[in-house]
Write a structure and sequence with these properties.
mainly alpha; single chain; 10 helices; about 220 residues; three-stranded antiparallel beta sheet
Length: about 220
């Protein structure tokens, strides 16, 4: 598997121009978007970007199979997804995505093989969550996560919401620390100033999403 820094160099070389154009006139930066992509899906693309085409990489930038009770957002499981309009088709698409990524990632492959009810919840290199399928079914049904620009547009849309949740919407420029705060809200839907960076997803080493993103922003500056 390539190093994280090498992966960031690939991301910038491949998508940097598109990202830079898209974040113009926003407080977001290429380094920030690189950090988010790294945190969200590098577990998949670090092992394949050197051998597969960009299109092939984007197609399997999916993940997150956690169901309830650990997942509280819709859908908490297969039954909840099947209960909505287009639910069966969305489940089949999300299930096929899990099988596809499982060909390159042993952990996802094992999940797919052992549980036919499991499906991916995150789609695209920035991980657009399946909870949005009720209002935005086409993104999932039409496999729009295969398209980087579509993924980027959804990410920037959600980051704007997160910026408001972090109470930073009135700031035209954000420091790297403030960007990490926005990322926490992107991950959790809220931000508590009293907790600083120790918020959001917590990895096996005890590092929080905010801490991880802050570190990746700094590393991306070297890429």
């Amino acid at each position: 598997m390539a190093s994280t820094l090498d992966g960031m160099k690939w991301f910038k070389a491949t998508f940097g121009a598109d990202v830079s154009n898209a974040v113009a006139n926003t407080p977001f930066t290429l380094n920030f978007l690189t950090a988010i992509a790294t945190q969200e899906t590098s577990e998949v693309w670090l092992s394949i970007f050197q051998t597969l085409s960009t299109a092939e990489v984007l197609a399997v930038c999916v993940g997150d199979t956690i169901d309830g009770p650990n997942r509280t957002a819709f859908p908490t499981g297969k039954a909840a997804l099947l209960a909505i309009p287009n639910g069966e088709d969305i489940f089949e698409t999300a299930r096929a995505a899990l099988v596809a990524v499982g060909r390159y990632d042993k952990a996802y492959g094992k999940i797919a093989a052992n549980n036919p009810n499991k499906f991916c919840h995150g789609f695209g290199i920035f991980q657009y969550d399946i909870q949005f399928c009720r209002n935005d079914p086409d993104f999932f049904l039409q496999k729009q996560w295969y398209d980087f620009d579509a993924c980027l547009a959804k990410c920037l849309q959600e980051l704007k919401v997160a910026q408001a949740a972090a109470k930073l919407l009135d700031k035209p420029e954000l420091s790297d620390l403030e960007l990490a705060y926005v990322a926490i809200a992107y991950n959790t839907g809220s931000f508590n100033p009293a907790k600083g960076l120790k918020q959001g997803f917590k990895d096996a080493d005890g590092r929080y999403y905010g801490e991880l993103i802050a570190g990746y922003i700094q590393l991306a500056a070297q890429a």
